[in-house]
């Protein structure tokens, strides 16, 4: 049974309430609040406070007693060990980085961490002026996810101290789809043959970087002009790089193989003596080639990534009349994801619309 007493009294120029109550350990504690203009309002506020306090103590009673003194550092290690079984290695790396940004909390008990503690760290990151707003927001959101797990899975705390933290708003990434002319101009300026072919496949077939690095000649169906996408080259859970499953069930697909890409692939296979079961592109991991390609594109005058080539491919398809359902199937997206990402017009299509309007109105 919840035991408590309420006392109201005149304090300074107003009224104060003092609530005495037994906590979850049976010890008497007090909480007070002042600044009420009369005794009636102080009593009313005290009753509302008692209601919230009772709920809080009931929630605390449900917490796992084994973790009542667990620190932020101890819990984060336990959390990461748990997540290792459920997320991709690159996601786990991202979690570790985000949590490390909150190391000031390491020695604090999880139950003692308040909104102000998180806010102080976020403010410090903002003041350092070394991190992008998007990075700070991502770090805060990742740690917030950990605190949610502490509430729901581990029953360590009853509320998330990240909930009311103010973080900088991330600027919307300025991604744009290249026109067909721009894509071809970019491709013509790539000197390295391997870099050219990887970029050509992204731009003309819409494959992701990991999907391209996972291609073997067995995936190339010359007779039916198709590329079969059934795997990708990625960092596996053991920390090594190798063939692994695709991003989602929608990612397993067949895409049309344009004649230009087919001819370039056949030339490449002969020139580099690639066997049917060998990977076409033998890079250890995608991050290395993605960075290198970005450098190539900048050198050619285009501040884009390989992902923007896939983005341009998708936008071009939609501008030519492909439905979102059809485009989603080609790209390995869900329809919702496709609509959210590609519901804009390319410069080519805007031009077409402009001509249509001028002609008819």
Automatic annotation (TrEMBL):
What keywords appear on the UniProt entry?
A: DNA integration, DNA recombination, DNA-binding
An individual GO BP term: DNA recombination
Q: What molecular function terms (GO) are annotated for this protein?
A: DNA binding
Q: Which residues form the Core-binding (CB) domain?
A: 70-151
- The region annotated as signal peptide is none
**Where's the Tyr recombinase domain?**
173-355
Q: Which PROSITE patterns match?
A: CB, TYR_RECOMBINASE
The record, for Gene3D superfamilies, names: 1.10.150.130, Intergrase catalytic core (1.10.443.10)
Quote the CDD domains the UniProt record gives: INT_ICEBs1_C_like (cd01189)
Function (record text):
Site-specific tyrosine recombinase, which acts by catalyzing the cutting and rejoining of the recombining DNA molecules.
Q: Report the protein name in the record.
A: Integrase family protein
What is the originating organism of this protein?
A: Clostridium cellulovorans (strain ATCC 35296 / DSM 3052 / OCM 3 / 743B)
